[in-house]
């Protein structure tokens, strides 16, 4: 959580006095470095580590007290914003569906290791992603890091403008009528920052007129879980909603 580092940052730039109801507080990577230069440990002054707040529990205490969260808005620049920055991953209570792989042979290599990418690739190879989205035309076309075009959006009544922010999707699939972007986890996650779905969603809606879907994927034990989240308003960060979810057990 880096409580001490962020307290030092808040103290140096008098962020506690900032009126977050009026506007976000903008801060640069260089300012973060200057405020934490006296710390000895790498994790107490490394900007990348300090700004990685992927769940509500990752937020420093000063963020929790102020009801704020952090978003990158440009390479090396961040906004501290008042509002709800995270969304819940609801537990799937229904009994897992037994799913028979569409492959007519066994994948030996998929059993070696335990990575998020490996499990996601196995789910795709088994046609589970296509089945969940009811789209047999989906093929893998997107993977890895890319930079966003300029776009703006709202968090509450506050307008945020971003440009050239690095995003990463674990896999993206394109079909005749839609593009599906997947964020994959290999352990049980109860909440995550909306940005992980919203920024890639905005990025790819800029590049295609096809419907862009955002999915959350998790492999735990023998079960493969999928959630589809949609945004009611492309300009509203908090318009995210759960559309459907399902848990599967894949049988060769």
Please give a structural write-up.
- With 252 residues, the chain is α+β, with helices and mostly antiparallel strands.
- It has a 7-stranded mixed sheet, with helices on both faces.
- It has 2 domains: 81 residues, no CATH class; 155 residues, no CATH class.
- It is globular and about 60 Å long.
- It is built from 7 helices and 14 strands.
- Helix content is 22%, strand content 37%.
- It starts with a helix and ends with a strand.
Helices, strands, pairings?
Blueprint: H1 3-12, E1 25-28, H2 29-35, H3 47-50, H4 61-66, E2 68-74, E3 77-82, E4 86-88, E5 97-100, H5 116-125, H6 128-133, E6 139-147, E7 151-155, E8 158-162, E9 166-174, E10 178-185, E11 191-193, H7 195-207, E12 211-220, E13 223-231, E14 240-251
Parallel strand pairs: 5-14, 10-12
Antiparallel strand pairs: 1-3, 2-3, 4-11, 6-9, 7-8, 9-10, 12-13, 13-14
In brief, what are we looking at here?
The chain is of the alpha+beta class and 252 residues long.
Give a quick set of tags describing it:
252 residues, alpha+beta, 2 domains, three-stranded antiparallel β-sheet, 7 helices
């Amino acid at each position: 959580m880096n409580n001490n580092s962020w307290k030092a940052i808040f103290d140096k730039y008098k962020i506690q006095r900032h009126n977050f109801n009026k506007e976000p507080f903008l801060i640069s990577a260089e300012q973060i470095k200057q405020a934490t230069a006296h710390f000895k440990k790498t994790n107490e002054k490394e900007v990348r580590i300090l700004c990685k707040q992927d769940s509500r529990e990752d937020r420093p205490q000063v963020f929790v007290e102020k009801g704020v969260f952090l978003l990158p808005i440009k390479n090396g620049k961040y906004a501290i914003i008042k509002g709800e920055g995270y969304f819940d991953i609801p537990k799937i209570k229904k009994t897992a569906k037994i799913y028979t792989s569409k492959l007519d042979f066994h994948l030996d290599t998929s059993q070696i290791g335990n990575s998020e990418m490996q499990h996601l690739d196995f789910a795709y190879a088994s046609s589970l992603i296509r089945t969940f989205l009811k789209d047999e035309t989906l093929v893998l076309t997107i993977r890895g890091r890319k930079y966003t075009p300029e776009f703006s959006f709202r968090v509450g009544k506050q307008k945020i403008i971003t440009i050239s922010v690095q995003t990463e999707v674990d896999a993206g699939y394109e079909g005749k009528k839609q593009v599906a972007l997947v964020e994959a986890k290999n352990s049980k996650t109860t909440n995550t920052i909306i940005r992980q779905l919203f920024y890639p969603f905005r990025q790819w809606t800029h590049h295609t007129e096809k419907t862009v879907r955002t999915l959350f994927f998790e492999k735990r034990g023998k079960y493969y879980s999928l959630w589809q989240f949609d945004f009611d308003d492309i300009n509203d960060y908090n318009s995210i909603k759960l559309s459907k979810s399902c848990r599967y057990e894949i049988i060769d």
